[in-house]
Amino acid sequence: MKSITQSTSTHKPSHLIVFGGTSGLGLALALHHQALGWQVSVVGHSVEKIAHINSQHPNIVTYCCDLMDSMQTQSLLERLSNISFQRVTYSAGSYTNERVHYLSQADSDKMLAINLQAFEQVFRWASEQLKQQSYSSDCKENSKLSLICIASIAGTMDYPYASLYAKSKRAMIATASAYRAALMPYHIQVNCIASGYIDTQALRDLNDGDASHKPFIMNTQTAVKHVMQAIDKNIELAVFPRSMRYITWALNHLPKPVLNWILRSKLDKTT
Question: What tens digit of pLDDT does each residue of 152-182 get?
Fold first, then answer.
C-alpha cells in the first residue's frame, strides 16, 4: 500500500505553455490552470512583467522572448523541445486601431509578425512536439493533448475593408482549423477562441485608461470561463459573448455590397 501511495504522489502534473502569458487573458489562463494543479510556463517579452510574475507567482516558469525576432523565437522553441508538455496556448497579439491611425511600417511589421508569423512558427513547432508526446505511454495518464489559439471576433468577418489585425486573425482562425483536421489522427485537440472585447489593461491603455464604452465588454474571469468551456467541449471555433456572435452572424449573412457599405461607413478616416 505504501508503494502505491508513493507512486501516486510522484505523478507529474500536466504542463501548459502560454505564449503571450505575462498579461491579460494569457496570464489569466495561466493562473487558472495553475489553480487546477497544472504546471505552467509563460512566454513574454516584457522584462518588467516577467519580474512581477517571478515575484508574485514563483511556481510559474517564465521565458523572455521577442516573438518579432524569428531567430530568437526559434532558439526558445529549441529549448522548450526538451520539456514535456500537454497543452500550448498562443495568446500573444498586437493591435493598432487602423480606423483612427494610418498604419505605419513599424505597426504593420509588428502585427504581421506577432499575429501571424510567430503564431505559425509556434503552432508548427508545437504540433510536431505534441505528435511525439502522443506516442508516449505517459500521455494517456495526462490531460488530452491540445493546441489553443486566441484570435478575435474581428477575424470572423469577411469584407474587403478589413484591417490588417482582422485579416491576420482571420488567417489564424483558418490555420487553426487546418491544424485541427491534420492533428485529428493523432488525437490532438485544436481549438480557436474568437472573443469580443475583454477588459484588459492593454485594451484600457488603447482607450485612455477606460474601455467601458466598448460594446458587450467582459471581464477577464468571464473570458477565462468561456475559454475553458470551449476547451472542455472541444469547440473548433468559440465565438463569444453570445450577443456579439449573433451580430457577426447576421452581418456575414447580408449581401456583400450591403456589408461592405455598412463597415466602410464606420471608418473614421478616409480610405
Answer: 988 888 777 778 888 999 999 999 999 999 9
* CA-wise closest residue to 88 among 157, 200, 179: 179
Q: How far apart are CA 50 and CA 32, in angstroms?
A: 18
Domain over 12-265 is classified CATH 3.20.20.70: no
Q: For residue range 190-245, list pLDDT tens digits in order.
A: 999 998 767 566 656 666 565 556 655 778 899 999 999 999 999 999 998 666 66
Label residue 222 exposed, middle or buried (CB < 10 Å: 0-12, 13-18, 19+).
middle
Query: What letters, b where the CB count within 10 A reaches 16 and e where it falls short, cover 55-90?
Result: eebeebbbbebbbbeeeebeebbeebeeeebbbbbb
Is 51 in contact with 76 (CB distance < 8 Å)? Answer: no
